[in-house]
Amino acid sequence: MTAFSSIADQLATQAIELPSWAFGNSGTRFKVFGTPGTPRTVQEKLTDAAQVHAYTGLAPSVALHIPWDKVDDYTALGAFAAELGVSLGTINSNTFQEDVYKFGSLTHVDPAVRRRAIDHHLECIDIMDATGSRDLKIWLADGSNYPGQVDLRARQDRLAEGLSEIYARLGEDQRLVLEYKFFEPAFYHMDVPDWGTSYAQVAALGPKALVCLDTGHHAPGTNIEFIVMQLLRLGKLGSFDFNSRFYADDDLIVGAADPFQLFRILFEVVRGGGYGPGSPVAFMLDQCHNVEEKIPGQIRSVLNVQEMTAKALLVDRDALAAAEAAGDVLGANGVFMDAFYTDVRADLAAWRESRGLPADPMAAFAASGYLGRIAADRAGGTQSGWGA
Ligand code: PSV
Ligand code: MN
Predict the structure, then answer these.
(1) What is the pLDDT of residues 363-374, one digit of tens each?
(2) What is the pLDDT of residue 387?
(3) Ligand 1 center to residue 156 CA distance, Å?
């Protein structure tokens, strides 16, 4: 077993981006429950996100979703974030909430709708120029519900055309990440359903286009760590949207449903060179807190990623390689499981304290009284909600 002290410096390089929308209300199509203190503005979302970073040291940036987080002055918003100790991160486009997109956006049969969708993405890149963001994240709700409803191939061609116009507008240091999802909102087919389609589309664009892997966007039983390995091998893993799921795209706290899967994914990230300062892989959360408190939900999430990262770093790679080479099936599995079962919680608490962070960020945040203060202070106004 690798000693915890030998991974301490590697842990210090971890950065996990928070989604602004995690701080707003969300729910299902049945009900969105409000919570006292929920942010009404993007500034309040950033203020809450900064709490997560202050208590964990793990979340220095916040992803924005456009138009939900639209403001007049992005330079001022960036300065506001900096005052709080965080920065503005990935810009997420949104072509899924306007009536005009009922039958698709970049894949729509009508050139006028495609034009509108492309222009939205160009506007997102203008915003990236102002915020200094590196990544544009594209997730498309495009798809169909019934066999025969659309021409599947023609839509791939239109998608390629739209993406290449967006790609051409990227600055030298900017990137595009294309997210895939196997179903929802469309149920028969999605235009970007899987990593292979995303890969085929981004590979045709060029080196600044990569795949975004949302851990909740696969059929049950999918070996996600295999996809991670393959995308790293191909040099096309751009980012993660971390969350966990029991049934569909549940957007639950990462590591809650299946901590072992998170460990396996992070091990492939580490083994494939996707972890560390020079890595091109962005770690982000994409979660919604329907019934739990949002800020502690985000703190729990980044701590879960950190805990499984520590275990993944603890795998004795030499012993594993030796067992693999010797065909020692149970020996190799034993080395792997040994790291997973190692309880790193006390070591992580000491590691935090040695860096001026609370040993128990959940308890320290709860004791701070912040939730009570925002519940009292943020009276009136309209709470942000998923989609608002
Ligand atoms: C789609 O389900 C998705 O995962 C995309 O990342 C969206 O932009 C995000 O959720 C919105 O919550
Ligand atoms: Mn996502």
Answers:
(1) 999 999 999 999
(2) 55
(3) 20
Distance 83 CA to ligand 2 centre (A): 28
Residue identified by tokens 């499981």 is 337
Nearest Cα residue to atom 3 of ligand 1:
139
The CA-based angle 243-248-253, given to 5 degrees, is 25
Ligand 1-lining residues (CB < 6 angstroms): 21, 92, 139, 179, 181, 214, 241, 249, 286
Strand, helix or coil for residue 189: strand
The set of residues, in sequence order, having a beta carbon less than 8 Å from that of 375 and lying 6+ positions away, is: 36, 37
Secondary structure E strands in the chain = 18-19, 61-65, 87-92, 135-138, 143-144, 175-179, 189-190, 209-214, 237-242, 282-285
Task: Give residue 148 CA to ligand 1 midpoint distance, Å.
Answer: 27
pLDDT at residue number 78: 98
CA 21 to ligand 1 centroid distance, Å: 10
For residue 111, say if its preceding peptide bond is cis, omega within 30 degrees of 0: no
| Ligand 1 centre distance from Cα of residue 318 (Å) | 38
Question: What does residue 176 show for φ and ψ, rounded to 5 degrees?
Answer: -120, 130
- The two tokens of residue 293 are 């408190």
| Domain locations along the chain | 13-311
Both tokens of 173, joined, read 């240091």
By alpha-carbon position, which residue is closest to atom 1 of ligand 1? 139
Fold for domain 13-311? TIM Barrel (3.20.20)
Give the model confidence (pLDDT) of 230-242 as tens digits.
Answer: 999 999 999 999 9
Neighbours of 327 (CB within 10 A): 8
List of long-range contacts for 169-175, beta carbons under 8 Å, 24+ apart:
169/121, 169/122, 169/125, 170/125, 170/136, 170/208, 171/125, 171/128, 171/129, 173/134, 174/125, 174/128, 174/133, 174/134, 174/135, 174/136, 174/208, 175/134, 175/135, 175/136, 175/208, 175/209, 175/210, 175/238
Task: Determine which residue's CA is closest to atom 6 belonging to ligand 1.
Answer: 139
pLDDT over 90 for what percent of the chain?
Answer: 98
Mutation test of ligand 1: which of 97, 249, 286 has the most ligand atoms closer than 8 Å to its C-beta?
A: 286
Residue 55 has a CB neighbour count (10 Å cut-off) of 27
